[in-house]
Design a protein that fits this description.
Layout: H1 2-5, H2 11-25, E1 39-40, H3 46-59, E2 66-70, E3 75-80, E4 85-91, H4 92-97, H5 100-113, H6 123-138, H7 158-196, H8 198-216, H9 218-226, H10 230-247, H11 254-282, H12 297-308, H13 320-329, H14 331-344
Parallel strand pairs: 2-4
Antiparallel strand pairs: 1-2, 3-4
Length: about 350
Amino acid sequence: MLIVLGFRTVVQPLIGLMLLGWALALRPRPGRLDPDLPILREADAPTLFELLYRTADSAGARRIDAIQFTADFSVSVIHYGLRHKRCFVLGLPLWAAYPPQQRIAAMAQALGQSAPRNVRCGVFIGLALRSLTAGSQAMRAGNVSATESSVNPHTWYAGDVAGAARRFNARARKSEWVLWILRTAMAAMARLLLWLTRPAARRARFEADDAAARAASSLATLAALRDRHLARAISLEMHRLFIEKRTLVKAHTPAVAQDDLWENVAQHAARLREQRDIAQSSELDSRGGVFGSTCHDSDALRMARLVHAPQCPATITLDEPCRARIEDELRLSKQAVAQLVLRDGIPLSLNLSGIL
């Protein structure tokens, strides 16, 4: 409207073009799957998809279309493509560290939090949050220092070069101020959306916990929440295994590394649980002795709800033949992710606050 109705002026079309440029930069983009990570479809893993279908139906969530495996200690549901398909992102460290029923609980929690009742995962609010976050990061100003002229003052046109450097610095400062204003506005709008949707997100999280308790049992859901603090320790152990495989000559064989990586992770998680249980049994926790000292306040509140709620038995279980079939379906994906881990390592600066 500014461009069409104000074509006789100069300011209005410029403002309209600037707004259109911002809208183009912040346009909602369809999500994409990482091509470097293994992806499974229903034909590739029918038993695992059947488990996810049962879990999604129990949680009241839409069924998934694909599964992607990562080296993160997390499970989540993302959307990709123009048709807004659903992909279940499964972190193999979590899969290796959790017992079978806790895996079902973690999957039920992730699927439950992606249900339509969680407005942060919806089309409008979710896209708005992602667009505002991406725009704020894109307009983040770098550490641009002032440009000083290094030309000898006695050379030809030294004054012109110094004047050009001063004008460049002035324009850079103005650009940084403009970017700061836009970045601050986008960040403030994102915080406002997060604050407004906090009650709905908390309610969706509680409903996801209830759905996980109905699917995998209340005890398994409590154990899955309690084991969230293992993420950092598992990440450190995988980093240690990466250093070990890269430095020890006898462990340079790729086949050996692929076969024992996830088994070592599972054994390390079992040792951590045993140490935690011994510490909790010998000394009461400052929070009352029920929850671990490493639990966050939100996790403690969620666990308290599950403890005081009526205990639910497991409605989704896996027998040994089903577990064996699922492990066989995951064999190639585990090898591919293990190769990536042993090639690139594990970044220790991971943000582990969004697990489950």
